[in-house]
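Re: the pair you flagged

First of the two:
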Amino acid sequence: MSESETQKQIRSSLPTSSPPSGEVTRLLEIRKEMKSREPDFVRFESWRYVRIHPEWRKPKGIDNHMRLSVKGWPHLVKIGYRGPRKIRGLHPSGYRDVLVHNFEELEKLSPSLDAARLGGGVGKKKKVQLVRRAKELNIRVLNGRGLSITEKTGAEKGSEKENEKQEKNITRKSLISKKVKNSRSKD
C-alpha cells in the first residue's frame, strides 16, 4: 500500500465535521492526561542487548515473561491505551494534520478542520509561497516556523542590492573625502 493510499484511509476514518470546540479541547486534555500515564512500550530485553533496538515488537515466545504479563516486566501494547475516538488522529491543536506538497493540495483543505504540514521534499522557495497562500486562505501551517513570509521577490532583491551598492559607494566617498581633509589639515 502506497503512502498516499494510507493517507486517504486515515483521512476517511477521521471525523468529517468538527465537533464543538469545547468538546474537542476537553477530549484533547483527556488524551494528554492519558498519554502522561501511558508506559513506554519497548521491545523485550532491548535494555539488555545493544543489538536489539527499543522499537516495539510484540513478544511471541512461549515462556516470554512480558507476553504473559508477569509482574515486574514492561507492559504490552493494548487497546485500552487508545485515546478518545472523536479526536483520534487529530493534531494536539485540534486540527486534522494534512501533508501538503503543492497548491492543489492546499486549496482542498478546509480552514475550520484542517491544518497543513509542508512536505519535507518541498524546496524553501515553494514553502514560502505555500505559507503565503495558506495565510490568504486562513489555513494554519504546522511546520512553517523559520520561513520568512516577508522574503523579497527576485526584482525586489535586485533593486535592494543596487541600493546597498549605492550606499557603500557613498560611504566610501565620504571616507575618502575625510582622509583628504585630514591630510590637508596636517600640512
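Second of the two:
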Amino acid sequence: MNIGQAASASGVSAKMIRYYESIDLVQVAARSDSGYRTYGDSDVHLLRFIRQARTLGFPIEQIRQLLSLWQDQDRASAEVKAITRRHIGELDARIAELVVMRDTLSYLAKHCAGDSRPRCPILEGIDRADTRHVQDRTTADRRVALAS
C-alpha cells in the first residue's frame, strides 16, 4: 500500500509517517520502481502501536524504548512497567500543574466584574511576577468549600 493508504489504515497522517521515518522511529519504507513508498500490514501495525502510545501521552523517546521492548519477545515486563510508572509520575505532575492553573484562573475570573470598567483582576493577576499568593488563596478557598 502507498503512504496515503497506510495513513488511512493506521490513523497516522502521512506527514507524521514521514516524520517518524526521518527520526528513525520507524524504518524508511521500501520504494516502488516509480519511487513511491510502500507499506505492508506489519508497518501499519507498528504505526497503530505508535499512535496509541502517543494517545497515551508517551513522548517519542519513551515510545522508542517501548517499541524496542514490544519487538523483543524475550524481554521481561519489568522494564515496560518501569517506563509506564515514570510516565504516570510525569502525568501526575502535569495534572497538578494544570489544577493550579485552573484554580488560579477560576479565582481571578470569580473576582473580575466583567463590566465596562477598565480594572481587571485577571490582567492584574497575570501581570504579577509571582501568582503563588493567588494560588494559595485559591487553595484556601477550596479547603473552605470542602469543609462546608
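The chain has a mean pLDDT of 89.

-B.
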